[in-house]
Amino acid sequence: MSTTGENAPAAPEGVNLEEASSARIYDAYLGGTTNWAVDRYFADQAVKQFPLIKPLAMANRRFLGRVVRAALDNGITQFLDLGSGVPTVGNVHETVASHARADEGRVVYVDYEPVAAAHSDHILTEQDALDWAGIVQADLRDPVSVFEHETTQRLLDLSKPVCVLLVSVLHFVGGETDVDALVRQYHDEFAPGSWLALSHICNEDSDNEGAAQIARLAEQYKNTQNPAFLRTRADVERWFGGYSLLEPGIVHLADWRPDDEITEAEREAGPFMWCAVGEVPAT
Ligand SMILES: C[S@@+](CC[C@H](N)C(=O)[O-])C[C@H]1O[C@@H](n2cnc3c(N)ncnc32)[C@H](O)[C@@H]1O
Fold first, then answer.
1. I need a labelling partner for 43 at 20 to 30 A (CA). Which of 26, 30, 37, 253 fits?
2. Annotated Gene Ontology MF terms (predicted)?
């Protein structure tokens, strides 16, 4: 199979074009062009396996947008987007730029995928945003590398509230990683009033056919650079143990403070992800 698609941009050095990557597959689900034949092949197979995957990706992206706007409305202007992905529709810094005062917004993107990192850098440079937004190419399983990075140190003031985004990424973290401990480690770095927003694939609230489809899809991600893990509401509840959950609590995507942008297909896809937002309480 040819690894270079007609629309694919030049790949940064060191990019693995032999195996699909979750960053580039997700870009393909969302109709982007920062993906290669290997990613598009996987995405096409995924649609056959689980036809709601594209609306699910879009519903997740819209959840992200609603969270960022809610945080801004709540006075939070700093964002740490862990597993931020390839820039696409509704990037966090763009939502921030259109909602926060020009001198207030701060955004740090974190992703370990070289294409996601290179394109984030490219878009921030092109938009002349590097003095208030930046990309850290790091593995979020190593929080020290995230917090000690020059860009994080320069842009985020951890003595003030930060909105931490773990959106559609923890299902790619598992295996030897203690996810509970990792989530706690991030929690412990942030000031009272900070938010954690999270979404995660699941299948416990769907009919048997949908549940089996997404379980098979998760299985197929084992053939990519990012094996996926299905988890349950109980896992999400545990991760929010140190937070005060904000209304409406742990719900499916379309039910978190919905607006009228949500389509019927996105509503149908909703039960395949849990999502929630919690606040670090005052001590
Ligand atoms: C499905 S995309 C989600 C993008 C974005 N958060 C969203 O919800 O629209 C998952 C992203 O997480 C990144 N990712 C997965 N594991 C990671 C890790 N351990 N460290 C950093 N990034 C990771 C992938 O490279 C990919 O870009």
1. 253
2. methyltransferase activity
Domains along the chain with CATH numbers: 53-203+227-279 (3.40.50.150)
Over the chain (283 residues), the average pLDDT of each successive run of 10 is 48 86 96 95 96 96 97 97 95 93 90 96 96 97 98 98 98 97 98 98 90 94 95 98 98 94 92 97 90
Q: How far is the CA of 23 from the centre of ligand 1 (A)?
A: 6
Q: Nearest 5°: CA angle at 30, between 26 and 32?
A: 90
Cα 54 to Cα 26: distance, rounded to the nearest angstrom: 9
Give backbone dihedrals phi and psi of 46, rounded to 5 degrees, phi first. -65, -40
Question: Measured from the CA of 140, which atom of ligand 1 is nearest?
Answer: 20
* Residue among 60, 147, 164, 169 to mutate when testing ligand 1 (max atoms within 8 A of CB): 169
